Structure of 3-methyl-2-oxobutanoate hydroxymethyltransferase:
Amino acid sequence: MTTHTRRLTITDLAAMKHQQKITALTAYSTPIARLIDPLMDFILVGDSTAMVAYGRRSTLAMGLEETIAHTRAVVDCTQHACVIADMPFGSYQESFAQALRNCARVLAETGCDAVKLESNQALAPTVAFLVERGIPVMAHIGLMPQFVNLMGGYKAQGLTETSATTIKQDAQANLAAGAFSLLLEGVAEPVARYISEHSAVPCIGIGASPACDGQILVTEDLLGLGGPNTPRFVKQYADVAAVIRAGCERYANDVRQGEFPQPQHCYGC
Ligand code: KIV
């Protein structure tokens, strides 16, 4: 494994393809970002912030100012992992100019390394426009949560021939547009394998099989903080909810019984 004394860049991620699996998780806040920074190759400040941190119904409810605030918090407390910001719904679909203006704001005001866009063939020209103007773009294909209302729910993609063809075409269009990486969400294994094997850039999977060049999950999901609708593709690696509950219960009991605070927690006594 390569060790770096500086923050990883998108070219470091590119060099990892065929050499080592790329590790990634989401972070929206300082405590989580600090903990995962030394362990991850990149951190995504996902638009899942809207659901996970704010309890909203979908990622469509993420705002640009919120994206900037959360991404800046993650960049400011990390030094190892490449940081990628997820462009929120409505911040890049209107026109090339709108996409450039908002992506440039995110890069300039947060110091992050790249942006991620949910991008099918129709949006690939936007990706090309951004890349040609110095904005590194990761293209998110397959299950695109910002299209949830069109898809009629969060459904695995690439299970029929038509869907498999569409995803391969989306991949091809975004590769031709200059995306530095593809993120494949909820994609059937044969399709994910085909795209990973036929792409020169790193393909990162979430619910898209081990055939991908790396994996990403929502951190809260793998820690057991994800709630009842955690997707099937998540593996829970820890039960942090139980740890939080036990700690908070002990605190509440101590307060109720006058056991906390003790003299060492007080001033002037
Ligand atoms: O918003 C997000 O967290 C994402 C991941 C699910 C990849 O896009």
Summary: The chain has a mean pLDDT of 97.
